[in-house]
């Protein structure tokens, strides 16, 4: 399950940024995950619980890590739907399946505008 490795890296980035801001505690993470990113949102939520629970108990060897990740941390996970662009129609559309055919003209879209995101977009600290 690569979601576990992804969440460990996101935790590392969050802790690094919290330390850089002089924060004493992380309260929440906000993630944006595209539907074509190859990440299962439910597996990511499970990995979040495992990784943050382990951080709360053990830390990563840094003096402030257990304190930064101690207590409840929320995960706000936004799933971004796939949006393609049809070069023939010049219109954006949401594909109904993996073929990505334009619903107006049937042309196959080769350009994905949204849906591959995997971003840490927010960090709530104090």
Secondary-structure blueprint of this entry?
Elements lengths: L1 H19 L5 E9 L6 H17 L7 H4 L5 E7 L2 E4 L4 E3 L17 E4 L3 E8 L1
Helix pairs in contact: 1-2
Question: What is the helix tally?
Answer: 3
Strand order of the largest sheet: 2-1-6
Q: Tell me how many strands there are.
A: 6
The shape, in one word, is elongated
Largest sheet: 3 strands, mixed
Kindly name the structural category.
Answer: alpha+beta
Write the H/E string, N to C: HEHHEEEEE
Radius of gyration: 18 Å
Strand content: 25-35%
The low-confidence runs, each spanning 5 or more residues with pLDDT under 50, are: none
Average pLDDT for all residues? 88
Taking the alpha carbons of the first and last residues, their distance comes to 32 Å
Helix share bin: 25-40%
List keywords for this structure.
126 residues, 6 strands, alpha+beta, 3-stranded mixed β-sheet
């Amino acid at each position: 399950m690569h979601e576990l490795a992804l969440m460990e890296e996101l935790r590392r980035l969050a802790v690094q940024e919290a330390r850089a801001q002089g924060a004493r505690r992380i309260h929440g993470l906000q993630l944006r995950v595209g539907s074509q990113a190859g990440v299962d949102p439910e597996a990511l939520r499970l990995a979040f619980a495992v990784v943050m629970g382990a951080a709360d108990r053990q830390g990563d060897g840094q003096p402030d890590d257990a304190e930064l990740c101690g207590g409840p941390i929320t995960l706000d996970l936004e799933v971004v739907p796939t949006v393609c662009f049809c070069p023939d129609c010049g219109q954006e559309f949401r594909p109904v399946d993996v073929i990505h055919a334009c619903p107006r003209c049937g042309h196959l879209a080769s350009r994905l505008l949204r849906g591959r995101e995997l971003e840490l977009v927010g960090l709530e600290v104090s």
